[in-house]
Amino acid sequence: MPDQTLMLRYPRIHDLVxxxxxxxxxxxxxxxxxxxxxxxxxxxxxxxxxxxxxxQNVLHDQGTPDPAMDFLGQRHAFPFGIAPxxxxxxxxxxxxxxxxRVASETGIPMALSCVANARLEDIAPLxxxxxxxQIYALEDPEAxxxxxxxxxxxxxxxxxxxxxxxxxxxxxxxxxxxxPPRGRLTPRMIAQxxxxxxxxxxSLRRGRPDFINFRPYVAEGASFSxxxxxxxxxxxxxxxxxEIEEIRALWPCKLILKGVxxxxxxxxxxxxxxDALWVSNHGARQNDAVLPSLDALAExxxxxxxxxxxxxxxxxxxxxxxxxxxxxxxxxxxxxxxFYGLGAIxxxxxxxxxxxxxxxxxxxxxQLGIPDLGRETLDRVDLFTSAPSP
Length: 390
Ligand SMILES: Cc1cc2nc3c(=O)[nH]c(=O)nc-3n(C[C@H](O)[C@H](O)[C@H](O)COP(=O)(O)O)c2cc1C
Prior knowledge:
- The protein is of the alpha/beta class.
- The chain is built from 19 helices and twelve strands.
- Helices cover about 45% and strands about 10% of the residues.
- A hairpin with a 2-residue loop joins strand 2 and strand 3.
- The chain starts with a helix and ends in a 5-residue tail after the last strand.
- Flavin mononucleotide (FMN) binds next to helix 3 and helix 17.
């Protein structure tokens, strides 16, 4: 049952942001919230949703709206999930476990990032709706293959290969906020942490987050910075078609390519064996000039009417979820929003985000007269685009 006190106080994801910002140290907040360059795309992702207007048809017997969704052979209680977010425990200590529990209790998928701060093998059993695992194509070929094997051994059925980080990211505002390259601890970080007591105490209890999923690939007893150096050497590189083919050959279950924004990449990804595509600009974190994901989705849906498509980047409400589905997405993920909940409220915060999204989605379905989220039903909803309201 949604917590009504929280719902009255924070009825929208938007309402969580100011408090989360106060309770997460500046360096971690900078890493979580910022985009790239002048950050025009951060706003662009969001205003792309604001332009979508939906037709309302209330003069029919709608029954009880059903927000469940079948996707890639599985039924989910809602058509939204938890996107992979690296350094999860830096933004909220123990975030991986908290999010896995929310995914299980809500009946939605969670994708664990390979650069999260909990072991894949420890989180998989907690996500009873099926954990998805997100990998990058590491430079180290043995480790690359081993991550795929470990995902299978842990019971993962959906592997997400992120392809949109061909070079190390330039996160200018994250470094201005105090996050040094490779996360070495600075006096400024300590000072920022002291201003956030709940975060600080939880961090002390949990220990410093590191790239724990890469531990098997470095010497036993390697230090925090040696592990960081390994990650830096292996990430931020272009994945080759041969590597995608190799992963495809090793992986017998669903394979999703994440970070596809063009018709050309979409076709290539399918030729290389992807089962589904994840249309994403990485939450505006890679390049400020690319298309808002929602606009890219329209292009790709037009090119590939039948391909399963996921959308993320800029989704901030249940109504946005519905807009994305109407625009052709089959499933929708959110990244930052879960941490706005954790930061603002603590351990119960991510569940509150799920509750907000569910309530907003069902409310919008009722208001617009949409009984279910099947493609035929969605296609009957009138679609208008307009300039964003001032
Ligand atoms: C702090 C942060 C870390 C991220 N780390 C990863 C990652 O490790 N792997 C990945 O594929 N995407 C990563 N992403 C991108 C998200 O999976 C997702 O595409 C993005 O957050 C969606 O945009 P939204 O935050 O506007 O919902 C990260 C995003 C954020 C905000």
